[in-house]
Amino acid sequence: DLLPASAVTRLAARINEAMATLELDLERTVQTSEAAVAEAKEARLALFEARAHVFRRSALYRLGRATTVDTGLVEGLVALDDASALGVGCLNEAAVAWRAGDRAEGRRLATLAVAGYRRAHHGDGELLARCLAAACGEPLEEAEVLRLASQRSEEHTSELQSPCNLVCRLLLEK
Q: Which of 46, 66, 70, 99 supports an S-S bond with 60, CB 3.0-4.6 Å?
């Protein structure tokens, strides 16, 4: 059975709300994402379910309540093969691993995030994931260090600095 277009639109709006509230109200993001996960699961819309779950995990990480990597989510993201969701989800889970002190898992997940962001042509995300991989011990060639520093430098001089670029700058300066 196909879901009515209005139901899909409503679900997409709920996921967009979760994304929008991520910078404003983390508890609301968790609640909205959980509702979207349940709706998407019932409707059997795997990509919507994964995206809602990624926003939920991002909020939980920021709240300090994501303390272990959600391997089921990572496996699902790999299976779905949506480049953007893979990048965002694996970057978040890499940060969870990094915070928990599991540098090897953080490096592995950050590398998956790099691949996702690269396929999605999302340069800022790729840069941040590459920096997190390096912070987790991924060896860098001198040429890559210079390239990352150059990218960071270009962002540093712009008037509008995204949180992504600010975090990357902090990682590169360590």
A: 66
Determine which helix (DSSP H) or strand (DSSP E) holds 151, and give its type and residue range. helix 142-156
61 with 92: CB under 8 angstroms?
Answer: yes
Looking at per-residue pLDDT, the higher value among 120 and 2 belongs to: 120
Rounded Cα distance between 119 and 103, Å, is 24
> pLDDT of 129-158, one tens digit each?
998 999 999 987 878 777 777 765 554 444
* 71 contact partners, CB below 8 Å, separation of at least 6: none
CB contact at 8 A, 15 and 36? yes
Other C-beta atoms within 10 Å of 124: how many?
15
The pTM is what? 0.84
As a whole number, mean pLDDT of residues 60-73 equals 96
Q: What is the CA radius of gyration of the chain?
A: 17
Q: HSE (CB half, 13 Å, CA atoms) of 162? A: 11
Q: What are the backbone angles phi and psi of residue 141, rounded to the nearest 5°?
A: -75, 155
Alpha carbons 128 and 144: distance in angstroms, whole number: 13
Q: What angle do CA 60, 62, 66 make, to 5 degrees?
A: 40
